[in-house]
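can u do me a favor
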């Protein structure tokens, strides 16, 4: 019997008003049905937003340290269920089990970090320019936030949007990606187990066109946080402008690893395999451009080819698997079309085809793929493929390298392998990106520093760290005059220059 899952509206699990459903299947084996989910529409979103609005006064007025205590409890519940949630994630999303554990751990990290913020949420106090007057700025919750999340980090990304929103005192409506709704539903069940009051978080599953747009258009949703495709981000931003919403967008990447001639090549190889083929290349932070100094290029490509040839494709629950499936068959087709473009533009070293042999036949698999002699302006070097495809671009000159690094429309993560401290710091200054790594690949951001990128990777906001508190709270500047008389700022004061 296929399990049926429902929306969460104000503490009640409910089917979509229309009764319609959609199916989530495992990308490793399409016969493995995860469940049926509510295919929701505007009226379901309406109910979820009303529930979030009703929950807002009590939640926002609960002292923030108490909200923090609930988040501490949630962190512990998530830790207790880490293995179960990770296995569900591998089944539904496909990433190999150790990576799924990392995804859940990232959610736990954010929960602990934001729980601690309940006792900080620092504001500002400043001296007033007038005597007997107190001046400060405090953080206030904003209201109902709409959270629209992708499938590639089905627990970490909802967590790193939700927990800062909650500690700031907001309530939320979440729409998960339709490829990974079970992960989100189970995650939210655990939030309730941790003691989150009813209505503080509401879940509406369904399509972006119906559910996503209804959340973005709703006048009572004051904030939108979205991670996904750049085109969708532009559309969300445009729609949300009509109701003057605050919008945070976390979009694409075309992240480079630069391997300089003095690099520790063993370390660089380990890092490239992890950054380019981990999560089957389906991270915003995945390394899809390998910019390699000519003096080490042939050695590097030869050794990389040998390493990649040994990668085992398969079900992520199988311990022998190095690289899991991609998310669905549409992704296989998209990646295959880029591989065809790559064959015209560059030299194929390994891979380049969907993988359908034996046990892989029932899933969505693509061979880890490497191209060399890729021109910096080739399409495979410029466009986000979101799959296990890496393009090697040979270089000889540092200034040219900087130009190539910065020649894409995105600016999420950049990395340099070198032993030269001067080059390391130049890369930090000159590579245009929100995340910069030295002697480490492009993936592995931690929960307590800002996450996000420049240019078409976003719209200037950052997730997690202190930056998330900026996004999910509103400043209120407060002046308390205890002089007992009218004191006019900028007027009733003695100016030093006039003395
Ligand atoms: C993403 O790629 O969508 O640094 C998020 C990393 C992870 C987060 C990735 N901590 O790769």
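np, heres the sequence
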């Amino acid at each position: 019997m296929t399990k049926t899952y429902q929306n969460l509206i104000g503490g009640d699990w409910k089917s979509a008003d229309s009764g319609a459903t959609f199916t989530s299947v495992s990308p490793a084996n399409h016969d493995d049905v995860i469940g049926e989910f509510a295919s929701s529409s505007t009226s379901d979103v309406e109910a979820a937003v009303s529930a979030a609005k009703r929950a807002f006064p009590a939640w926002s007025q609960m002292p923030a340290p108490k909200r923090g205590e609930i988040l501490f409890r949630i962190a512990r519940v998530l830790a207790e269920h880490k293995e179960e949630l990770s296995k569900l994630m591998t089944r539904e999303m496909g990433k190999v089990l150790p990576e799924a554990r990392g995804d859940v751990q990232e959610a736990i990290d954010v929960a602990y970090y934001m729980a601690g913020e309940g006792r900080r949420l620092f504001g500002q106090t400043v001296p007033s320019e007038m005597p007997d007057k107190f001046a400060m700025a405090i953080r206030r919750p904003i209201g109902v936030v709409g959270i629209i999340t992708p499938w590639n980090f089905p627990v970490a990304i909802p967590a790193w949007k939700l927990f800062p929103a909650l500690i700031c005192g907001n309530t939320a409506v979440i729409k998960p990606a339709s490829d990974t709704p079970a992960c989100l539903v189970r995650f939210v069940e655990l939030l309730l187990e941790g003691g989150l009051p009813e209505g503080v978080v509401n879940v509406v599953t369904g399509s972006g066109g119906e559910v996503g747009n209804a959340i973005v258009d709703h006048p009572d949703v004051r904030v939108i946080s979205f991670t996904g495709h750049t085109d969708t981000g532009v559309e969300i931003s445009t729609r949300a402008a009509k109701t003057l919403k605050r919008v945070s967008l976390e979009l694409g990447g075309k992240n480079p690893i630069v391997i300089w001639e003095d690099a520790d090549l063993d370390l660089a190889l380990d890092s490239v395999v992890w950054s380019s083929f981990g999560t089957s290349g389906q991270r915003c932070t995945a390394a899809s451009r390998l910019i390699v100094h000519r003096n080490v290029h042939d050695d590097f490509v030869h050794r990389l080819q040998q390493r990649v040839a040994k990668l085992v494709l398969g079900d992520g629950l199988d311990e022998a698997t190095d690289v899991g499936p991609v998310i669905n068959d549409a992704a296989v087709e998209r990646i295959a079309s880029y591989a065809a473009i790559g064959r015209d533009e560059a030299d194929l070293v390994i891979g380049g085809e969907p993988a359908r042999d034996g046990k892989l036949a029932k899933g969505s698999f693509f061979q880890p793929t490497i191209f060399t002699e890729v021109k910096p302006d080739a399409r495979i070097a410029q466009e986000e493929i979101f799959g296990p495809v890496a393009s090697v671009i040979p270089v000889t000159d540092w200034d040219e390298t900087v130009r190539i690094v910065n020649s894409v429309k995105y600016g999420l993560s950049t990395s340099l392998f070198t032993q030269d401290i001067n080059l390391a710091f130049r890369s930090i200054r000159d590579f245009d990106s929100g995340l910069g790594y030295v002697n480490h690949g492009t993936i592995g951001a931690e929960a307590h520093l800002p996450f996000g990128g420049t240019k078409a990777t976003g719209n200037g906001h950052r997730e997690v760290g202190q930056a998330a508190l900026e996004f999910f709270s509103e400043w209120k500047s407060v002046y308390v005059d205890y002089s007992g008389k009218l004191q006019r700022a900028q007027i009733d004061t003695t100016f030093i220059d006039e003395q």
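The chain is about 40% helix and 20% strand. hope that helps!!
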